[in-house]
Every structure is written in structure tokens, then in C-alpha cells.
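Re-run requested by the PI after the first attempt was lost when the workstation crashed. Everything re-entered from the original request form. Ligand of interest: iron/sulfur cluster.
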Amino acid sequence: MTETLDHDIPSFPMARACPMHPPAEYRELRGREPVSRVRMPDGQVAWLVTKHELARKLLADPRVSADRLHPAFPGRLTAEQRAATERVRRLSTRRSMIHLDGAEHGAHRKILTGEFSLRRIAALRPRVQEIVDRTIDEMLAAPQPADLVEHVSQAVPSLVICELLGVPHEQRRDFHEWAGMLVSRSVSIRERAAASDALNDFLEDLVTEKERGEPTDDLIGRLIARNRQTPVMTHDEIVGTAVMLLIAGHQTTANMISLGVVALLENPEHKARIAADPALLSPAIEEMLRYFSVVENAPARVATEDIEIGGVTIRKDEGIVVSGLAADWDDEVFEHPDRLDFERGARHHVAFGYGVHQCLGQNLARVELEVVFETLLRRVPGLSLAVPAEELPYKDDAGIYGIYRVPVNC
Amino acid sequence: MHITADRERCVGAAQCVLAAPAVFDQDEEGLVAPLTVDPAGADGPAVRQAVHLCPSSALRIDEE
Ligand code: SF4
């Protein structure tokens, strides 16, 4: 490897020229240096992977760790932000499988896989449909223009996760409000910390209650029962798992809904084709997942040994950011990646990651997206953006890409 | 074509079932449960895609 002078190292994240396209540097880096050095917001240097093949290789490599608490783990916050949000971080640093490696990860994951099988998820579809119908009713009844994010994008995943975790009906409103505050730009750090504490306490109580009483027929209840038979998780880890499921299932799906709807409204011919042919919906969703790959830098890792890859040597204890977005715009794998092509067969995208940590909830996300897009196209055929797509407030500053507000007329 | 599915490695993402529903299924635990380990020739491309998509390298095919 050639010596890289310190000032030559580009900063991560890189800026987008167009809100719907990845930063232009990804393309250049992929051609020149598919595993390259970047400076993270806290000043640490990490490796950035921009090529599809190498991204898959690294994410499946047992010599990388997902341990978020490792000092070299690439984070998105500056040192000050990190200090200011210490309490918010508590919510995301509780132990759950996304932070674990090897056998420990395997045991945590295995106790949950049955909950996310295709059959289980298919059985949930009627409930998802009811939730989507209700949120759309509320959007239609709201003063126009209504905010798609508030009424549908945020509401659907939040209510679905309540259903899954077994959050009682009376408490869903609070739950939804706290979850929304965690990701809102218009609340102060102090308010966000308060919401985070409230949610944490809430899930702590929920788990404790379910542990005490008769086993309930919901994900947490079944997890507790299974864990009693074969102990894998501590009480704290069950709470951490509930928190992880909430966070992981919430923002990702919410932002995919917003971006997907904008993409459909901006491409009326695509929209018309899906509306006319429901069989196209599933491949269209894979393509949208690829195109937006909203989990920009969540697939971060730390090398646990020296790894030779893409012409460089990643040293033990160095951080790695595997950009799913960069990988999913690799034109060697997806021809003309800038074209939204519903028939390309994009299922090998890495929008859900790859390797043993590949998203456990991916098939639930698919169902939520399918039901939302199908129902919106059917029930609100006149849906339109109330402001030009370029003027929407895109989340350039967030770890998961998306849009803060999408005013629509319905 | 002969399939080996390693349930110890499987992480239950169901990519295989989505790619080749005639060949792969999931059991109660969400782990891969092949419906057949010697699929018909016509399933070949779908099975190969399943192998390619499996995130945990739990599937192997031996071509005969
Ligand atoms: S694709 Fe691989 S990990 Fe996923 S269910 Fe099938 S065998 Fe298991």
C-alpha cells in the first residue's frame, strides 16, 4: 500500500449532488480504490468499501466484528455530538445481537429466527393491511397538504412493531410519539434524550411484566418462554432485543416508504405500470431497496485480524464502513444503476446487508412496503407532491437516509 | 445436482425460499428445510440463485 498523506483522506459521509443519487465520489473510488481510507466525523480513519463483490466478501468474513463498543468502530457522530447524546446512545448500546459476533450472535439470532419466517410474516399481513388502511384514512381526513411521513411512513412501522412486540393498545400512542421524537429534527437533544429514556423504561417495564405473568402470545412473550427453556439471553438482553427491533424496524421502513412514494410520484410511467400489474410490485420493491439502500453506513465493522482485500491490507483493530449504497450502485453488477428499472432482478442488492447479520426483519419490511404501495396506489390514485421533489427536506445529516417531511395532496 | 443445507450456518433470512420456493422451505424455527435435496433440472437456475443469495453460505450444490 502506498502511504496516504493525512490531508488526502476524504471525509465521510460525502455530500450528495442530487438527493436521489449517491455521492459522486463513490463511483470514482470504486474504479480507483474500492477499499479506501476515509476520515470519520470523530476524526478517526476507517476503510470505506464501495464495490459490491468486496462488500459481500467483507460482510461474510468471520474476521470482522460488529462490536459497536470497540474504540475503532466507525461511528457517525463527532466527539461533541457523542458526548451530548450519551443518554440517547444508551438506547442503542444495550446488548442485542446486532452488536455480537460468532457463536454468541448465532445463539441470539437463532432464538428469534422463527418469529420472522415467511409463514409467520404472511400471517401478519392482514393486520398490516388494517394498520395501513387506518393510517391512510387519517391522512385523507387531515388538512391538506398532509404530511405523508407523519401519517403513513412513520405510523405504519411503528404500529406494526407494537403489534409484533405486544405493546397494549392504550400505550401505542405514547410509544409512537416517543419513537417519532427520536428521529425528529425539530426536537432538542434534551427532548430526544427524554423520549429515549421514556422508551427504554417503557420496554423495560413491558418485558418485566411479561416475565412475571403468564406467557403472552406475542414476540416478546414467546421469546421469554423460549428463553426459559433454553436460556440464551439475560433480562437486560431481552430488553435490548426489544429496543433493537424497534429501532431497526422503524426508521429503515419509514424512510423507504417516503423515498419510494416520491420515486413513484416522480415517475408516473412506473407508477402506472405497477398500478396496472400487481405482480410487478415485488421486483419493483427490490429495485427501490437497491436504489435507495437507506442504511448508508450501518454495516460498519472492525477487523479482528489483518485482512487482505481489494489490493490493501486492513489491519487488525481498524474500522470498516461497508457502504451498501455504493455497492448497490456498482455498475459492474447493476447496469445503469441510476435508472430505476423494475425488471432488472435486483434481489442480490445488499440493502439489508449480507453475511450472518443480514437483516432478520427483511421479509416483514417487504410486506409493509408491498401493502403500503399497493394500498396507496389503489385508494389514493390522485396522490401528488405539494412541493417539488427537489425541495423536500432530505436527511443529509442522518445515519439512515430519507426525508423529514413529504407534504402531499390526496 | 445435489443440495447440502447447513442448518448450523443458516440465519433464517429466507432468501432461498424466495428464490426457489419449490426446493426450499423454512421450519418452525425459521431455519432452512429443503423440500428435496435432489431437485429436478428445471429448478437449477433458481437453486443456483438461492446459493448466490444466501447471506451465510449455508447452501452448497454439488453438480453431477
Ligand atoms: S438463504 Fe441461507 S440463511 Fe437464509 S434461510 Fe436460506 S439457507 Fe438459511
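Saved to the shared folder this time. Chain A has a mean pLDDT of 90.
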